[in-house]
Write a structure and sequence with these properties.
By secondary structure, the chain is mainly β. The chain contains no helices and seven strands.
């Protein structure tokens, strides 16, 4: 199974302890742009990929009428959000 990583624009909020809470993101497909609301964060974990610290979020959303699970990662070094399909 091939994993595809796409950079996305994210709206998130942080609590007073610095915990990240993703809300929604915008992804571009061809010439179409979609805004996906995150219904639930199922899991969050800290990981390092090639020495690069990241927060990994397993999320659930309803996309085109179908509930889908996916991973979002926040790259702490580069301040970027990545969607993994």
């Amino acid at each position: 199974m091939n994993r595809i990583a796409k950079t996305v624009e994210m709206v998130a909020w942080f609590d007073d302890k610095g915990k990240i809470n993703p809300v929604k993101f915008r992804v571009e497909e061809d010439e179409d742009t979609k805004v996906i609301k995150i219904n639930r964060v199922l899991n969050r974990e800290y990981e390092r990929i090639a020495g690069n610290p990241m927060w990994k979020f397993t999320c659930s959303s309803i996309i085109d009428g179908i509930e889908s699970n996916y991973n979002l990662k926040y790259d702490l070094m580069n301040c970027k959000w990545l969607l993994f399909l």
